[in-house]
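For the sake of transparency, this paper describes our internal protein records without simplification. An entry from our holdings is shown next, in its original layout:
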Amino acid sequence: MANVRSWTLTDVAQRVFVDRLDLNPSVVAVPSEVPWAIRKRTLRGGLCDGVDIIEVDNGALSFTLVPTRGMGLWKGSYRGTFIGWQAPVAGPVNPWFVNPLDQGGLGWLKGFDECIVRCGLGSNGPPCTDVVPDNNGNPSKVNLTLHGRIANLPANRVEIQIKPGPPTELTVIGVVDESMLFCPQLRLVTRISTTVGSNRLTISDRIVNFREVADEVELLYHCNFGMPFIDKGARLVAPSLSVAPRDARAVEGLAGYDTYLGPTPGYVEQCYWHDLAAGSDGMTLAMLRNSDGDNGVVLRYPKAQLPCFTQWKNTVGEREGYVTGMEPGINLPNPKTFEREKGRVVVLQPGASYSSDLTLEIHDQAEGVAAVEAEVASLLAGRKTVVHPRPIATWSPGA
């Protein structure tokens, strides 16, 4: 690409590693009316010890990426508004301290505190037992752990690109391999980009099967938000054609599935499956807005790429991890065996790839929130949401 400036921070194959880097308009000689910066550093101490982070600040929106944790997005801020949530975990946690097998396969939660974390790539549901061929081609039982492996794998290549504008574009590229002998060999290639002064960032992912036989892929973007986007009376605003509770616990809160409680110590999570309407351009969206309607966080993406949408409600006490998740995915986060049976597990042929794009957009004024609500109403075009009174067999095992 013409005029693009590039800096390689990590390249394992070439034995390249840059511990610290500070870029801004004066350093790279790119004129800009809006100050911006990209900083790379390595954290020390506690569970963060050895974690590499890249801080991107476009002058209005800032966010922290974590190459050590699968290129997840840790936290951010838009014009002083916090983006993310306050987890019980003091992270970002080095994967050295995460044993996925702990707590019966729930050990993933010991490192979970990101705003946006990918679940996948080989599996992304709850712990379960699957049957796969072993190294001799015989059926073998394997234990799949919560939400898969990609979030606890470090990038083996990281690059920063700056494309002068206007508007100037800031991009971080990462490559993460999830591979093992006699097992799936999948590669995540991600581009996370933003333009100077904007209220949005875009994640463009490509998952490549670099094995010489077909392999399965699951992927879900676990996008997590606490205050100020959720509070008592906050709402999920989405063009939901149909909604179903995941299980009996979710049935208990079905009447208010799209609204939120304030911090409620001891609350037990509730999940809802949604089928979202898309526009003529194939795009859909979902917004979480606070009770006053002056703060909203929006996800935009092509529905064909991410046909499934999960709403996770976890309005526990503030110190327990008061949060909700908006989770677009290839599939639902059910046991992989169930998702395979329902045809929602993607099979990639040798050398083939699967692409997905997700844009995060922040609004800190009532006018912006209201405009998104109008978009959602337009997508529904007068159609009423079908709310299923109980789990349905298409989406929930055992329904």
Summary: The helical segments are 25-28, 102-105, 248-252, 318-321, 336-341, 366-380. The chain has one domain: 5-387. The mean pLDDT is 96.
